[in-house]
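Standup, Tuesday
Yesterday: got the pipeline producing structure tokens again.
Today: sanity-check two examples.
Blockers: none.

Example 1:
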Amino acid sequence: MKYNVVFVFSDQHRLQATGYAGDPNVNTPNMDRLREIGTDFPYAISNCPVCSPNRASLITGQYPLTHRVVFNDVTLSPNATSIAHAFKNAGYDTAYIGKWHLNGKGRSSYIPPEERLGFNFWRVLECTHNYNNSFYYADDDVKRKWEGYDVFAQTDCAIEYINEQRKKDKPFFLMLSWGPPHDPYNIAPGKYRERFKDKELEIRPNVPVYTKPYVLRNLPGYYAHIEAIDDALGKLMDANDENTIFVYTSDHGDMLGSQGLGKKQKPYDESIRIPFLMKLPGESIKSFDEIFNTPDIAPTLLGLCGIDVPDTMEGRDLSEVIRGKKKA
């Protein structure tokens, strides 16, 4: 029996902003639960901590100097060999839902099938951060709108896809890409923002005094987004069966005032270290205590599913290490 794969990733969620990593300000019970039942990668890093370059490395298993997407809104070659191509060639159905940010031809532009890098099921917009007024394309060039906060609508779409796939005698590879907690920080649903209204927050010790007003203005909204995506993550986890490899991670982190800096593209832990949690069918180690870099993701997932890794991929296949069969 072939494993199904559900790969969920958010945008700009730093490792430090999780309950299991010790952040006293935020509750992430579902991320914490995934860590308890799966494998934690405490040294997972974003090899180029900005959206398009990191996503290109995730999809191709290559480093930026190879795939040539070295900053945002650059087109990843539609001729690139992708992780979806590898799964598709192994008999999988392939699906992508949410933010893409690899086409580079306009953030609201339609992406035709020949430029989708091997994904069949398609509910995608190139890029938006207007999470309450969010659009997508499906099989044609008609722009459709996600209802409400797009994280919840996209999660419901993913669950519907999973339920439909169960009716078929075919494994699937699904990528779900959420926009939050990327700024704008203060537009999460009201019930999540209300949790942080007037709440006294503990600021990281590497935040300079002059940066604290910026941090205190934005940190509540950042945490509100994270608690919202944690709820969505829990709902999605519960929709999967024991034959599924389930991953939660992010494309990069967010400085949020640490070292006096904001957002990403910085060589500091808050920018490059990301949550990476994986639940496997059967046995696996509890913690992968080595560096796990973005180009390693694609070959490792393929290895876990017994699929040949394309020669174009530069990352390491660490599947046997995760299974506890050998050392890194």
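Example 2:
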Amino acid sequence: ISNTSDMKNYKIPKLQATLIDSKNNIITTWFFYAEHENLAPQESLNFNTSYIHDNHDIADIKIEFYKEEE
């Protein structure tokens, strides 16, 4: 995750991971957080998540920012 701004700190929202099979069906979805809550200007941050599977046909993973309804 990168903050490309030169002036503004950004709060990192919850992240959503989705596993997709070879027929484009969603296998499962889960939520997780990055290690830090905020990013300063020009700062980058790595994140980790994992999923233990039982021989599912996993073809793709999608990671998105998740904004909760206010």
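Quick observation on example 2: The chain has a mean pLDDT of 91. Strands lie at 10-11, 14-21, 26-32, 38-39, 58-66.
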